[in-house]
Write a structure and sequence with these properties.
This protein is 26% helix and 26% strand. The protein is an alpha/beta fold. Strands 2-3-1-4-5-11-6 form a 7-stranded mixed β-sheet, with helices on both faces. A 4-stranded antiparallel β-sheet has the order 7-8-9-10, with no helix packed on it. A 3-stranded antiparallel β-sheet has the order 17-16-20, with no helix packed on it. The chain binds guanosine-5'-diphosphate and magnesium ion.
């Protein structure tokens, strides 16, 4: 199992209205990154995210699935959430452990109630985000109209990064706004340079200006240069974009066709380049015994602390929990303190999971696998089938934090409580 240092991890939640294309986008990303060799379809019930019997029957997501994807040597833990409000508990659990979000907007439907809800959740949790407008392969979709709609609602933070080039109703390429360059898809993941189509030249100038304004706002010196009519280098633009995305001052808008697997590589590149690693955020808690503040900060050399964001009871696997490790290294057979229940519990094994399949690491004591559990911040490879709705579905309350006896970390919101592996 690969070992990823914390800076090589991204925890990203997918949010949006039910049916906007979240699961299909995850499916496309998994395929482009080589995790799968075929593209599953929600309608055929064979996607890697919607593997539960009930999800296959209903043809939509009911639970949050963790799908880890490696891209450019970075492990991205995607959390595919249900869009329907009946399952909002699943969404909130995922948001609590994510460090950034992709809000998916249907190209056909535009901004919907679920989009607004997703935006609100990101605001509330201070999540950096990008917006993916999908279905760019479908009839009568208008990317520019949706950008206008987003700008009307959310202001000038929404900055287009990639613009579709369509011929008729087909998505045939894209314009990279930062580079002012156009590319056409040339089959099998290939792209070739092409001219910016004449009818998109005005849009390119408008979007480029919006991006330059956002770049200028990241730095006083840049602002002076912007007013002097100076231009920025690509490195300066990339650096400034990253800063403004982290701060929530800019929300890139990009696009895709999930079913035809187009522009997916640019979305993965942006996730790696623009989103923060877990340790770019501070995380503090309280030592239950002394009341002293504890800076967990995802530091492996500190005392163990973790947040269990989802507990599942499976008829075959028993009870297991998905954890986000906030400090230290958690190993199989550790004795952990459950801060909410006030007792000690022992974990049996650490497992790395990805949607339907599961890989067990009984010896998570080895630095490699342990670190990957820890620094992954989320479990990371195949996981067992989840509890079916008929057998007591949704995880009740957020689970309880289990921490080794040493300093107990409890963070007001994130590490409120935890239930842990007790199969
Ligand atoms: N044409 C087209 N259909 C899409 C695209 N993305 C998703 N869909 C379809 O939209 C429907 C809902 O997609 P799904 O991924 O389940 O949405 P979710 O509820 O947000 O996870 C499915 O029938 C998908 O095949 C896309 O990019 N293009
Ligand atoms: Mg779904």
């Amino acid at each position: 199992m690969n070992v990823y240092t914390t800076d090589k991890i991204r925890n990203v939640v997918l949010l949006g209205h039910g049916g906007c294309g979240k699961t299909s986008l995850v499916e496309a990303m998994a395929n482009v990154a080589g995790l799968t060799s075929r593209i599953g379809k929600v309608t055929d019930g064979n996607t890697i995210s919607d593997y539960d019997k009930e999800e296959i029957r209903r043809k939509f997501s009911i639970h949050t699935s963790v799908v880890p994807i490696e891209w450019n040597n970075v492990k991205i833990n995607f959390l595919d959430t249900p869009g329907f409000f009946d399952f909002i508990g699943e969404v909130e659990e995922a948001v609590a452990v994510a460090d950034a979000a992709i809000i998916v907007v249907s190209g056909k439907a535009g901004v919907e109630v679920g989009t607004e809800k997703a935006w609100e959740l990101c605001e509330k949790n201070g999540l950096p985000r990008i917006i993916v407008v999908d279905e760019m392969d479908a009839e009568n979709v208008n990317f520019h109209r949706i950008v206008e709609e987003l700008t009307e609602r959310y202001g000038k933070e929404t900055v287009p990064f990639y613009v579709p080039i369509r011929e008729g109703d087909k998505l045939v390429g894209y314009i990279n706004i930062a580079k002012k360059a156009a590319r056409k898809f040339a089959g099998a993941g290939k792209r070739v340079e092409c001219d910016v189509p004449a009818d998109l030249e005005d849009d390119l100038e408008t979007y480029y200006d919006t991006m330059m304004e956002a770049v200028a706002e990241t730095d006083d010196e840049y602002m002076d240069r912007y007013f002097d009519g100076d231009t920025f280098t690509l490195e300066e633009i990339t650096g400034a974009n990253k800063k403004s995305v982290h701060e929530g001052a800019a929300v890139p808008v990009t696009m895709s066709s999930n079913t035809e697997v187009l522009n997916i590589h640019n979305i993965l590149n942006d996730v790696v380049e623009l989103f923060p690693a877990p340790n770019e955020k501070k995380i503090t808690g309280k030592n239950d015994k002394t009341g002293a503040e504890f800076n967990a900060d995802f530091d492996p050399s500190k005392a163990k602390s973790a947040y269990v964001f989802k507990t599942i009871v499976d008829p075959f696997m028993g009870k297991y929990s998905l954890i986000k490790v906030c400090s230290g290294i958690i190993k199989s057979d550790d004795v952990l303190y459950n801060a909410a229940a006030g007792n000690e519990e022992s974990s049996t094994s650490c497992t790395s999971c990805a949607a339907v399949s599961r890989k067990k690491f009984p010896n998570c004591r080895r630095a490699t696998s342990v670190r990957s559990v820890k620094q992954a911040a989320l479990p990371a490879t195949p996981c067992p089938p989840r509890l079916s709705p008929s057998s007591s579905r949704r995880p009740t309350s957020p689970s309880r934090t289990s921490i080794r006896r040493t300093p107990l970390v409890r963070r007001a919101r994130k590490i409120r409580s935890l239930r842990h592996l007790a199969s």
